[in-house]
Design goal:
Blueprint lengths: L5 H7 L7 E10 L10 E14 L6 E14 L4 H6 L2 H25 L12 E5 L2 E5 L6 E2 L9 H24 L1 H6 L17 H22 L6 H11 L5 H9 L7 E3 L8 E6 L2 E7 L6 E3 L1 H12 L2 H26 L11 H31 L30 H16 L4
Antiparallel strand pairs: 1-2, 2-3, 3-5, 4-5, 6-8, 7-10, 8-9
Helix pairs in contact: 4-9, 4-10, 6-7, 6-12, 8-11, 9-11, 10-11, 11-12
Amino acid sequence: MSGITLEFLQNLLKDDYPDVTVQDFEGAPGTKRGDNYTSMVFRIQLKGVQKHRDPDASGETTQPWTGSIIYKCLPDSIERRKTFKSEELFCNEVAFYNKIWPALNDFQQQRKVKSPFKAIPKCYLAQDDLVILKDLKQQMFVMPDRRQGLTIEQCYFVLKNLSQFHALSLAMKHYNPEEFYELLNVQDGISEVLFTGDNEDYYKSYYREATRNAVDMVEEELAGCEDKEKYLSKFREFCSEETFFQMMVSLVTPREPLAVINHGDCWTNNFLFRYVDGDIAEMVIVDFQLVRYASPALDLAYLLYVCLTREQRTEHLPSLLEYYSEELYKRLMELSDDGSVFSGMDKDTLNELFQEEFHRSGKFGLGSALDMYPIMTCDSNEAPNLYQAKDTELVPPHESTPVSTSNAACRKKMTDLVRELVDGGVL
C-alpha cells in the first residue's frame, strides 16, 4: 500500500466526512486466500476525530471517529500480474468506475426512473494500479460462503439487480447510441480481456490442464454407470483443445439486438447482501474486472450454472429465467420515452430472444465452470497466494495453471452440470 498517507486519506474522504480529521490508519488483507485471484484487496482501518457543533454551547467539541475503506491494487509480484493478466483486468475495472457506471447512472437519472439501480459501491478513486471503494462491511453487508454457493432467495435478488443493470445499457444503446458506443472505445472504455483470439496461445496450456482435470473428475464420478460414455464423449468433444478456446471467443462476441454491458464474473464472492431480521434488505455487486459487451445470457449462465446446484436448477430454473425476463422488460418500460419498449421489442419477442440466448450460452456456463468449480470448492491452501512478496514468486507467466482439486463436491458439481446440459440438448 505504498503511497498511502494521512494527507492522501484526508483528501480522499473530505466530501463524505468533512468534519473528520484522520489521525492514523492500518491495513490488513480484506479477503481470505482463495476468495480473489487477480488483485490484492486490503481493508484500511482509519482512526481520527470528528467535530460536532453544539447549539447549546459555544464552540465545537470533538469525539473519537473510526472508519474503513477497501483498497484494491495489483499484486506485488510482477510474474503473478502477468500470469492472471491483472493489469488488463484492472484497466477494465478502472474504465467501469470512471466512465461506464457514471454514464449509465446519468442515463437513468435523465430518464427519471422512480427506483434507480444503485447496487454499485461508491468508488473514491480508480486509476491504473488501484481502486479505492467504500467499505460495505460498515453497513453490515456480508459475502456468502464461496463453498455454499447462493440460496434461491439470494439468486432472485441477484437476477433483479442484473436485469436493471442490463436494461440500462440496452436502453441507452437505443436512445443514445452515439454516447453508448463511446463507452466501448478501445482507448478508455471496456474490452474483452480473456476470450480473444490473441490469447489462444497464451491460455493453451492453462485450458489444456483445466479441461483434463474436469474430464478426469467426470470420468471418476461416472465410473460404473451404464451411460458413462453418453456423457463423457460429448464432454470430451466440448473440451477439445482444437475448438474449446475459439468456442468461448465466439460465445462472448456481441450478438444484436440484445447485447449489453455484462458484469462478466457473476459468482458468489462478487455479491454482498445486507439483512434485516433475517431477510435480504439489499445487495451490492462488486468486482468489474471482467465487464464485457456481450449477451446478457452470459451473466445468467455463469450465475445459474456456477452458483446453484443441479437440485436448485431442477426445481427453480424456469421460474428464475421467467423472473429475469419480466424484470428486464419492466425496467425497459420505465426507461422508455412513451411507456413502451422500443420498436420490435415487445414482451414476447424479448422473452423469446432471451430464451434462445440462454440456451446457446449454456456452453459458456460450462466453460466457466471448468475454472470456477475448483475455485469454489478448493481448500484455501490450494489457491494461489496473491499477497506473497515479489521475491518469493516461483511461477513464470508462461506456466500459469488453473486451480486444481478433485474433491467430492467438485466432482459432483461438474458431473451434474455435464449430465444436465447433455440431457437438455445444450451439448
